[in-house]
Amino acid sequence: MIFVSSEIKKLKFIKLSQAVIWFANEKSISHIEKALSKFMIVSLKQADKNLSEKFSEYTVKVEPFYTTIIDLSIDEAILWSILDKKSTRYEIKKAEKMGVEISLNVQLDDAYELINQFMISRRLRGAIPYEEWQSILNHADVWCGLYNGNLYAAHVLLKDGIDRVRLLWSATRNRVSTEIKKIIGAVNRYMHWKEILYYKNIGVKIYDFGGVNLDKKSPTYTITQFKLSFGGGIIKEYDILLTSNTILKVLFKSKDFIHKRLRLLGY
After folding, report:
1. What are the distances in angstroms from CA 42 to CA 8, 183, 190, 242?
2. How far apart are CA 220 and CA 206, in angstroms?
3. Percent of the chain, pLDDT > 70?
């Protein structure tokens, strides 16, 4: 279980405080209860569904979350064999020949800048506040992929002890040309492979690609195909939104302007 707290000040009339608890299960109940007593919003990410029933009095939203995971307990040879031969294995070998360099927890500021540029350019979210970035780094590793000394990709992975690592943010430089696009493809796959081997070797059980969209008609399904090319299995978990604040309960369930504003904040 990973616990992250923050304050959200985007609604002028109210100052929202939030606790995010990742991978919550029955062992997390006391932590959830404490969070509800201190924070206006408690978000359970990739949690056991039965927690929505346990905290039914506070539950305002439950959504299924699908992701693909790699079992890191299997042999490296098997991990290699389940990679897609035509795309993933080929690109990893290509990156090795190119001399792609991988760094871990070194170029933090460069990664932060690249991730923000990527998020804004793709309209995924606004810039990550530096306070939020620092809070996440308490629970995460930052990987960077470089070619000819230039940063091409950055990955931020949450660490839940030895139970799981989970891709939280992934960003690449602007794909301004076909050549850069090809380099990014090789760098990205090589980074994931090196991450998988690193966490396997230190005893982590699961590598989580951070979510997939199973709708084949979705414009983001190509990302799902990329993640599935590593041979992982798909699992279903749940994102659960809780609040002990009576006013917020009404707002979350309403269809008025305030509800729309809350949705813009990701709720």
Report:
1. 12, 40, 36, 5
2. 24
3. 93
